[in-house]
């Protein structure tokens, strides 16, 4: 004689509908560049700005109207809305106007500063 065991399970599924609202924000500087920055020759200049935007913007740096590209002389960092331009081994040729430009599909924001290179500190011999 063969016995058959039947197991019945009832599974109740609950569905929950969530509505996510994403607010779009055109680029705006939370921390703009300082109006003027002074740095010693042969030092490192650090230019920093922070932008708030959703969707995330494309941030580009310019010096005297020309786009800055990463190189051994220029290092560009971007993390969570904060953009930093490092100028390594600053020289007199680095004096000028620097601009941080943030662009998204909703608009753009621009912040500028003038960088002044000072003579290196004199050391006593």
UniProtKB/TrEMBL annotation:
Q: Which GO terms describe its cellular component?
A: cytoplasm
Q: Has keyword Cytoplasm?
A: yes
Predominantly, its location class is: cytoplasm
The record's Gene3D superfamilies line, in alphabetical order, gives: Immunoglobulins (2.60.40.10)
**All copies of domain Ig-like, residue ranges:** 27-116
- Record's keyword terms, sorted: Cytoplasm, Immunoglobulin domain
Pfam families, alphabetized: I-set (PF07679)
Q: Where in the cell is it found?
A: Cytoplasm
Q: Does the keyword Transcription apply?
A: no
Under PROSITE patterns, the record lists: IG_LIKE
CDD domains annotated for this entry? Ig
Name of the protein: Ig-like domain-containing protein
- Lineage, broadest ranks: Eukaryota, Metazoa, Spiralia, Lophotrochozoa, Mollusca
């Amino acid at each position: 004689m063969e016995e058959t065991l039947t197991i019945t399970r009832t599974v109740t599924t609950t569905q929950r509908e969530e509505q996510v609202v994403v607010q779009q924000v055109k680029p705006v500087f939370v921390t703009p560049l300082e109006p003027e920055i002074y740095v010693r020759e042969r030092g490192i200049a650090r230019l920093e700005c922070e932008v708030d935007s959703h969707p995330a913007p494309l941030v580009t740096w310019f010096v005297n109207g020309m786009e800055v590209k990463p190189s051994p002389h220029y290092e560009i960092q971007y993390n969570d809305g904060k953009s930093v331009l490092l100028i390594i081994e600053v020289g007199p040729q680095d004096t000028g106007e620097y601009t941080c430009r943030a662009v998204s599909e909703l608009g753009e924001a621009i912040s500028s500063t003038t960088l002044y290179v000072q003579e290196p500190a004199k050391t006593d011999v």
